[in-house]
Amino acid sequence: MVNTQEYYPYIELDYKYRDEPRKYKLQLDSLPSNLCKGSVWYFRFSHTNKLCRKLYSVDGYFFHREAFNNCMYESQTYSKKNRRLFRWIDPLFKKDKYYEAMNAKYFKRYYAGKPTKRYLKVLSELNKADKLPRNAMELALMK
User: Fold this and answer.
1) Which of 49, 71, 112, 118, CA to CA, is 20 to 30 A from 27?
2) What's the number of domains the chain is made of?
3) How far apart are CA 128 and CA 136, in angstroms?
């Protein structure tokens, strides 16, 4: 439930996490838009007193990302060498996904006679995958 009419606007979250009911309120704040048309709504967290527009879920609760200590994306835990390696062989893993995207029902290759940005991106990623040597996985494992 969202309530923006009272003096203290809030959003009430009511959901289940692993069959455990969760229900709590998050305070909302609005600031004037930089376009001078209306306002932009933010979540305000009392324990950090920070405004944010994106919530992060850890252990079933949604908060500002700075509310959690030592939280990282999985890729941030990899060494630099492994990150480079994954970036190099990643097109192989995503090749099927890009072919599926190109053959999707409403995928547009061209608009007004020009190739779409999405189509060019998909082609670029497929070309990266095709340029990798056939034994790229074996080479990656040897490094």
Assistant:
1) 71
2) 2
3) 12
CB 98 within 8 A of CB 122: yes
Q: Residue 53 is which amino acid? A: R
**Residue 74 binned pLDDT confidence (cut-offs 50, 70, 90):** confident
Between CA 61 and CA 75 the distance in angstroms is: 22
pLDDT above 70 for 89 = yes
Q: Sign of the C-alpha dihedral, residues 106, 110, 116, 121?
A: positive
The parent domain of residue 51 ranges over 2-67
Give the span between the Cα atoms of 93 and 75, in whole angstroms.
16
Which residue type, as a one-letter code, is found at position 138?
Answer: E
CA triplet 113, 118, 110: central angle to 5 degrees? 15
Q: Tell whether 34 and 89 lie within a shared domain.
A: no
Asked if residue 143 has pLDDT above 70, the reply is: no
**Contact between residue 10 and residue 45 where contact means Cβ atoms under 8 Å apart:** no
Same domain, 6 and 56: yes
State the pLDDT at residue 141. Answer: 67
- 43 and 87 within one domain: no
